């Protein structure tokens, strides 16, 4: 496949969630209308008069438009009667207009807080998107001094945690694109490359294999692999190194996130034995990810395999996180989270073993809970990949 640039020139500046592709890919007007209707049902159940959404993924989930994180206010204002998208006039050309909401651009000399205030009317219970800048929230509170402001996560979480068919299809496409990158990694020569050079190749392949944008690349070699979120640097990869590669991109706004562990030449010492246990832990975690299980049952299933093999003390993070428009979102697969898994929930299953100063390893797939059990969206080989 020919190389294509990371940002296609015709698209200009792309929002980080690639929300325009959500639109183009598969979510029709009716899809957004249905999501806004469900948000209104939840608002009614919770006694919320108005939902105010600014930057972050809640607004594109409901409208297909992602606010730029700017000093100029963008805000979705949703009441039982109306859904309005208030945007800076110069951003209005980026909005794909939809039947589900009315577009209200504001000119440079207008006061957007006053416009949102008018749309809120006499609302008393106001739910505000969790990532809204404090300066906007403080101004809104001043404009409505007797209103009660709460975190809109309570409204949006029950919607976003269950993915609809459009969302699962985009996650599936993102997962398949990530798998094609992993297949190409198997044929690469690692030895002699720096981590950052390999990370650059992963980034390019992430786009070449079908993502709209590349989001992140962890390339961690040798002792650096003991740091789960290692920032790739100038370290040269040499024979005898393990290399953990964790990367992702977006398709139609939806994230991929997968990790595979490579080894330059055959591993020595107890690495292979630990990897066997890790592989078993990852499979056990996935097998436990079925409807009716609690989120922490997945963590327990993976962790118990590593505990039994004597590696549990080196598994230093939760087993997984939800994924969708955000790379990390609910549900979190961590001890103490008793939320029951339901069909449509999507999350990573990613146990790891990290021995400080020596090596690290991780295997990560995205898994969707289905009525029958689950569907694994990453299917590239999970076994330790021996490379040159
Ligand atoms: Zn990852
Ligand atoms: Zn992850």
How would you explain this protein's 3D organization?
The longest helix is centred in the middle third of the chain and has 22 residues, at 165-186. The protein folds into two domains: 29-160, 3-Layer(aba) Sandwich (Creatine Amidinohydrolase, Chain A, domain 1); 165-387, Creatinase/methionine aminopeptidase superfamily (Creatine Amidinohydrolase), CATH 3.90.230.10. It has a six-stranded mixed beta sheet. Strands 7, 8, 9, 10 and 18 form a five-stranded mixed beta sheet that branches. It has helices spanning 19-25, 29-46, 58-63, 112-120, 134-143, 153-160, 165-186, 195-208, 271-288, 295-308; strands at 50-53, 75-78, 83-88, 102-106, 125-128, 148-151, 213-221, 242-251, 254-255, 258-264, 320-322, 329-333, 346-349, 352-355, 359-362, 365-369, 374-376, 385-387. Mean pLDDT is 93; it is low at 1-25. It is elongated. It contains ten helices and 18 strands. Helix 2 packs across helix 6 (153-160), helix 4 (112-120) crosses helix 5 (134-143) and helix 9 (271-288) packs antiparallel against helix 10 (295-308). The chain is α+β, with helices and mostly antiparallel strands and 388 residues long. Strand 16 and strand 17 (374-376) form a beta hairpin. The site of one zinc ion has 5 residues, from loops.
């Amino acid at each position: 496949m020919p190389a294509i640039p990371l940002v296609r020139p015709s698209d200009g500046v792309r929002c980080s969630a690639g929300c325009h592709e959500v639109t183009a890919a598969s979510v029709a007007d009716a899809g957004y209308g249905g999501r806004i209707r469900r948000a209104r049902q939840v608002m009614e159940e919770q006694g919320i008069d108005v939902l105010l959404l600014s930057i972050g993924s809640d607004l594109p989930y409901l409208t297909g438009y992602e606010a730029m994180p700017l000093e100029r206010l963008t805000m979705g204002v949703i009441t039982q009667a109306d859904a309005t998208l208030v945007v800076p006039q110069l951003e209005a050309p980026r909005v794909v207009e939809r039947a589900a909401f009315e577009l209200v651009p504001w000119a440079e000399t207008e006061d957007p807080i006053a416009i949102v205030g008018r749309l809120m009317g006499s609302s008393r219970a106001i739910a505000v998107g969790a990532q809204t800048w404090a300066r906007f929230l403080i101004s809104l509170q001043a404009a409505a001094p007797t209103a009660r402001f709460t975190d809109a996560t309570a409204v949006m979480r029950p919607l976003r945690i269950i993915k609809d068919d459009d969302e699962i299809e985009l996650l599936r496409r993102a997962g398949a694109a990530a798998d094609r990158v992993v297949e190409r990694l198997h044929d690469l020569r690692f030895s002699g490359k720096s981590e950052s050079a390999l990370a650059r190749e992963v980034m390019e392949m992430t786009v070449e294999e079908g993502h709209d944008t590349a989001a992140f690349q962890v390339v961690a070699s040798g002792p650096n692999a003991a740091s789960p979120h290692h920032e790739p640097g100038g370290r040269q990869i040499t024979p005898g190194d393990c290399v953990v590669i964790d990367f992702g991109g977006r398709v139609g706004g939806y994230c991929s996130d997968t990790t595979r562990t490579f080894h330059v030449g055959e591993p020595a010492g107890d690495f292979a034995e630990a990897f066997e246990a890790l592989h078993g832990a990852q499979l056990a975690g996935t097998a436990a990810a079925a409807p009716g299980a609690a989120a922490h049952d997945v963590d327990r299933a993976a962790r118990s395999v590593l505990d039994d093999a004597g590696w549990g003390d080196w598994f230093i993070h939760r087993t997984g996180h939800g994924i969708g428009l955000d790379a990390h979102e609910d549900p979190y697969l961590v001890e103490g989270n008793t939320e029951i898994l339901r069909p449509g929930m999507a999350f990573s299953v990613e146990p790891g073993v990290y021995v400080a100063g020596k090596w690290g390893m991780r295997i990560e797939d995205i898994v969707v809970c289905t009525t029958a059990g689950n569907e694994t969206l990453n299917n590239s080989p999970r076994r330790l990949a021996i490379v040159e």
